[in-house]
Amino acid sequence: MTAHPIELTVNGRRVSGMAEPRTHLAEFLRGPLGLTGTHLGCEQGVCGACTVLIDGKPQRSCLTFAVSCNGDEIRTVEGFDDDPVMTELREAFSAHHALQCGYCTPGMLVTARDIVTRLGDVDEETIRRELSGNICRCTGYVGIVGAIRQVAAGKTAVAQNWNFEARHDAVAAKTVEAAPAAEAAKPASMDFSTAGDGFSVLKQQVTVPAPADQVWAVLGDIRRMAACLPGASVDTVEGDRVTGSLTISFGPIKASFAGEGEVARDESARTGTVKGRGRDAKGGSSATGEIAYAVLPQGEGTIIDVTVRYKLTGPLAQFGRSALVTDFARRMTDLFAANLTAMLTGTPGAEPARSELSFLTVASMMLGALRDRLKALIGR
Amino acid sequence: MKPAAFDYNKPADLAAALHALSGDAKPIAGGQSLTPMLNLRLARPAALVDIRRQADLLKISEAPDAIRYGAALPHAAFEDGAVPDGTNGMMRHVAGGIAYRAVRNRGTIGGSIAHADPAADWISALLALDARVIVQGAKGETAWPLDRFMLGGFTTVLEAGDLITGVSVPRLSPSARWAYYKICRKTGEFAKAIGAVVSDPDRGVFRIVCGAIEVTPILLEARSVEAALAEIDSRLADHAPAARQLYKTAMRRALEGLGETSA
């Protein structure tokens, strides 16, 4: 986490300084360099207020780390005093009342200049499309679009400067084609609903090609059961009380819930529950949940009926529904079933589950999370 | 908003980058998907490995039947026609519709694939083009079809120490046609539905992809508009009816637009 020395050219001036890796370019400009013309709005890349030129191309200074700009040429809204196009834009913005509070204006101007220089004499529709990444909450855009249209009139597009090496190969590069997919197992059926009390409910069925007696025995041994859940680990077991943790990973998101739980079993009905609660110390989210299962013989094999109820609080609470959730939970269930099958039958073919994957309970929350929370984010 | 602290390093070459990626580290090129998640503290890797300027990841190699693009090439380079195109303009069209220009200037094709957002443009478009994701890892180099590279939303075959180094896209015949239609609530927003079609009779290729469906995009078996819509209804029966309607609308418009695409 140590600070790194960086050197940039900012508005034509060489500057150097120290920056922690997590320092955004925008912060570096506004803080140590005192260039507060660059504004921070959403800090998720959506609003466009922080747009600056990096090596001549508009980019988000909130989605760019200062350390990764080492050696680059930066131009902020303060660096266009003598720029002829920007001079025209400033006057046109003023004449067209293209700003009110002015918060979005630095990003608007940098984007507007890019539209005019890169695309030349553009029509209103193109301007509106190109401006879609810059949000203004005051003007309704009419004045901004009008100002850009006025400045663009009669301008010629300037080709962008890219320089990539294209090489001709007589033969395609030697690369091993991925092995064909193994025969897909019958996917677990899945049903998702919201209980209305803040809990979400996932119901699913897992088919295991092993006798019900064996399956029932494994599910009664929390350590063996956890071994089938990628990311789960058991610390202590005392009677029906258990402590442990569950680490889940979803794309770049990782959360590790440490906590405690109780297990209960009904031998005659062959049903059981695992209740638990845990907290992700790093992220500050908490989860409460209950897994209820029933073991039913089916021919030579076994069906496990699983119902998961869970509730999240904290930063991850906003996450939690949709097709994404059920897809993830289905994948986790399939992995659990595969691991359980491998454990019971010693099937060598069953691939061990990747360690960073994990069980559906806590996992399922994150899924919908992303879609809902990040739907406004730009990255593709 | 500031991300949780992380270490940063910028390896001198690809071998050093692969070595640096073996722990709890994430590669970062454009960072246009990863940085928002860092800012929101949803992602907290111990270290970032900066691969934006790796020369090996910025190369393009042209073979007679395919073009291989370096993973760190930004979307805007495709949009501007700054790289060779073997898809009769499809990749250029798709690149130009990704998010916003300021994002396209920095965000990369490899990064978008690695992030594996089901709503992302490259995932669906490259599946329709039957491209291969080139992954470099401990076991050497492997070429993955898009729908097997992705295991689900935001989940891929990539493991610690793996890196996408490029994407290999087959060249279409001069007579090939394509269509790409996406439905967004706002220009530049994530898609709610994507229909992507590549028709290349000279190579015996006709691929229809239904994308932005919250899970891995699917390659349809249908060969007509009616059959495609029916297939969406049956294969995505567990999706909300309103969502399915969007998928079908995007698909119908893509297939109807196929006739109008110029080669």
Shape category of chain A: elongated
The CATH homologous superfamily name of the largest domain in chain A equals START domain
The ordered string of helix (H) and strand (E) elements of chain A is EEHEEEHHHHEEEEHHEEEEEEHH
The Cα radius of gyration of chain A reads 28 Å
Enter the CATH topology name of the largest domain in chain A. Alpha-D-Glucose-1,6-Bisphosphate, Chain A, domain 4
Which sequence of strands runs across the widest sheet of chain B? 4-5-10-6-7
The total count of strands of chain A amounts to 15
Shape of chain B: globular
- Number of helices in the DSSP assignment of chain A: 9
So what's the CATH class of the largest domain in chain A?
A: Alpha Beta
CATH topology of the largest domain in chain B: Uridine Diphospho-n-acetylenolpyruvylglucosamine Reductase, domain 3
SSE string of chain B, helices as H and strands as E:
EHEHEEEHHHHHEEHEEEEEEEHH
How many separate domains of chain B?
2
Largest sheet of chain A: 8 strands, antiparallel
Mean pLDDT over the full residue set of chain A: 84
Characterize the structure shown.
The complex is a heterodimer of chains A (380) and B (263). In chain A, helix 2 (84-95) packs across helix 5 (142-152) and helix 3 runs parallel beside helix 5. In chain A, strand 1 and strand 2 form a beta hairpin. By secondary structure, chain A is of the alpha+beta class. Chain A has helices spanning 25-30, 84-95, 105-119, 124-130, 142-152, 212-219, 222-227, 322-345, 360-374; strands at 4-10, 13-19, 51-54, 57-60, 73-75, 166-168, 176-177, 189-194, 200-208, 232-238, 241-250, 253-266, 271-280, 285-298, 301-313. Chain A is elongated, with a radius of gyration of 28 Å. Chain A has three domains: 4-78, Ubiquitin-like (UB roll); 84-152, [2Fe-2S]-binding domain (DNA polymerase, domain 1, Orthogonal Bundle); 189-374, Alpha-D-Glucose-1,6-Bisphosphate, Chain A, domain 4 (2-Layer Sandwich). Chain A contains nine helices and 15 strands. Chain A has an eight-stranded antiparallel sheet. Chain A has a five-stranded mixed sheet with strand order 2-1-5-3-4, covered by helices on one side. Chain B has 263 residues and is an alpha+beta fold. Chain B is 29% helix and 26% strand. Chain B has helices at 14-20, 34-39, 75-79, 90-96, 101-104, 109-115, 121-128, 146-149, 225-235, 241-258, and strands at residues 7-9, 25-28, 47-50, 60-62, 66-70, 132-137, 140-145, 150-152, 155-156, 163-170, 177-183, 193-200, 205-211, 218-220. Chain B has a five-stranded antiparallel sheet. A four-stranded antiparallel sheet of chain B has the order 11-12-13-14, sandwiched between helices. Chain B has a three-stranded parallel sheet with strand order 1-3-2, with no helix packed on it. In chain B, helix 4 (90-96) runs antiparallel to helix 7. The relative contact order of chain B is 0.13. Chains A and B meet through strand 4, helix 4, strand 6, strand 7 and helix 8 of A and helix 2, strand 4, strand 5, helix 3 and helix 5 of B. Strand 6 of chain A pairs parallel with strand 4 (60-62) of chain B, so a sheet runs across the interface.
